[in-house]
């Protein structure tokens, strides 16, 4: 059986949500949002093929969980890094420097937290970059 689906993205999204909710009840809204990033033809294909839909839902769910775990890890690292940066700078500057340092890879950040000298060096490099940026902005 081949179903005919609307070309209207909102209606297609509603249909997709219903199908996704049958596969994944807890994260159906998030997964539907992710799948709606696909082109219309692909979404229609997923709606017509339960196996492809299930595979797409699993892939999206795994990506979403990985994203959430990374976000949580970054938040935890951010708290630890902020405490370290506050040893050398005021709270306002520490917040900015922490944000800059959080752009680094989490593996690298964990290494920095284990090596106080390397951490201090990275903090100062970030501070110099921030100072230079602020100087250019005021010119």
UniProtKB/TrEMBL annotation:
Transmembrane domains' residue ranges: none
Which InterPro entries does this chain map to?
PABP-dom, PABP_HYD_C
Tell me where in this chain the PABC domain is found: 57-135
Q: What is this protein called?
A: PABC domain-containing protein
**Organism of this sequence:** Ranatra chinensis
């Amino acid at each position: 059986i081949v179903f005919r689906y609307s070309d209207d993205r909102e209606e297609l999204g509603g249909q997709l949500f219903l199908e996704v909710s049958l596969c994944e009840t807890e994260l159906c809204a998030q997964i539907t949002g992710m799948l709606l990033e696909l082109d219309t033809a692909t979404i229609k294909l997923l709606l017509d093929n339960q196996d492809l839909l299930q595979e797409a839902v699993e892939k999206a769910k795994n990506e979403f969980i990985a994203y959430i775990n990374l976000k949580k890890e970054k938040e935890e690292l951010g708290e630890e890094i902020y405490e370290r940066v506050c040893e050398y700078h005021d709270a306002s500057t520490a917040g900015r420097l922490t944000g800059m340092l959080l752009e680094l890879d989490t593996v690298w950040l964990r290494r920095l937290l284990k090596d106080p000298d390397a951490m201090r060096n990275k903090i100062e490099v970030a501070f110099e970059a921030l100072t230079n940026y602020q100087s250019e902005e005021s010119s």
